[in-house]
């Protein structure tokens, strides 16, 4: 098997606004993923007993040091012949992940989220979890950015969408039938708050009117090009109810791994 997936935990949330807690997410996603309540097979028949795990990066709240460690950690996964599935953590981690991914692959990013995360800076922080895709687009770390499920855009973020040429499918358009069209290598970045809080309440920024779990799985399973990497971020266990959101994050991780395993 060539280039199978490997999990990498990134327990970092020091770049969060409003409410921290997502740093506690990776071990709980793993626990739900491997729970005896289910089995090791994905919907497409892939066997998760083949899923490798690099463990969690040792990180502190030093944002610059964390970005460097995340970049190096993802590079190590790639150098080992694996495709990373990164468990966050807040969404700021996608920027250093993409700095590593872009050295090997030129990709389209499929970004699923309630928020655009395109602020030039947020509350004076250019590396906030509200800013990663501005940094990614400024540095040309992807060929194309496609956003789905967005439902909180400010005038500034609409300007940023125009500035960077982002293909943004706001939730109203998605509800009307619009779907992303993506070809070639793809990186998938999934903020759990892109999913409606009825399905995934364990997030810091609940925004009703979002995607269903099946909507997200259909996008993952419908990808045409190779899936070179992914992240699942912004699960906040302190806000979860009965482990529901941990199960949702694990299901999404499971199906991302399943696509990668069948492509490997």
Keywords for this entry:
264 residues, alpha/beta, eight-stranded parallel sheet, 8 helices, 8 strands
Structural class comes to: alpha/beta
Largest sheet: 8 strands, parallel
Biggest sheet strand order reads 2-1-3-8-7-4-5-6
Helix fraction by DSSP (H/I, runs of at least 4): 25-40%
Low-confidence stretches: none
Radius of gyration: 16 Å
The shape is globular
How many alpha or pi helices? 8
User: What is the total tally of β strands?
Assistant: 8
Distance between the ends? 6 Å
Strand content: 15-25%
Whole-number mean pLDDT: 97
Oligomer category: single chain
Following the backbone from N to C, one meets helices and strands in this order, namely EHEHEHEHEHEHEHEH
Blueprint (SSEs and pairs):
Layout: E1 5-10, H1 25-33, E2 52-56, H2 63-79, E3 83-88, H3 94-101, E4 108-112, H4 132-138, E5 144-150, H5 155-164, E6 167-170, H6 171-175, E7 186-191, H7 213-221, E8 227-233, H8 244-263
Helix pairs in contact: 1-8, 2-3, 3-4, 7-8
């Amino acid at each position: 098997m060539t280039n199978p997936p490997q999990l990498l935990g990134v327990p970092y949330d020091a770049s969060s606004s409003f409410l921290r807690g997502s740093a506690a997410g990776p071990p709980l996603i793993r626990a739900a993923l491997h729970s005896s309540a289910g089995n090791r097979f994905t919907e497409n028949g892939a066997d998760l007993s083949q899923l490798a795990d690099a463990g969690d990066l040792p990180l502190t709240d030093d944002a610059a040091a964390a970005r460097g460690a995340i970049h190096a950690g993802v590079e190590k996964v790639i150098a080992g012949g694996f495709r990373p599935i990164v468990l966050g953590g807040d969404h700021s981690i996608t920027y250093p992940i993409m700095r590593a991914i872009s050295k090997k692959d030129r990709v389209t990013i499929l970004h699923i989220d309630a928020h655009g995360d395109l602020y030039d800076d947020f509350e004076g922080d250019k590396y906030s979890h509200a800013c990663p895709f501005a940094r990614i687009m400024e540095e040309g770390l992807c060929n194309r950015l496609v956003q789905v499920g967005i439902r909180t855009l400010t005038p500034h973020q609409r300007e940023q969408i125009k500035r960077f040429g982002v293909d943004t499918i706001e939730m109203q358009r998605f509800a009307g039938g619009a779907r992303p069209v993506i070809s070639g290598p793809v990186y998938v970045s999934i903020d759990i708050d892109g999913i409606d809080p009825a399905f995934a309440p364990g997030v810091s920024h609940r925004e009703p009117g979002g995607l269903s779990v099946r909507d997200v799985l259909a996008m993952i399973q419908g990808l045409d090009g190779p899936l070179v990497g992914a992240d699942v971020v912004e699960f906040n266990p302190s806000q979860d109810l009965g482990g529901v959101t941990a199960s949702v994050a694990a299901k999404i991780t499971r199906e991302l791994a399943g696509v990668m395993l069948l492509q490997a």
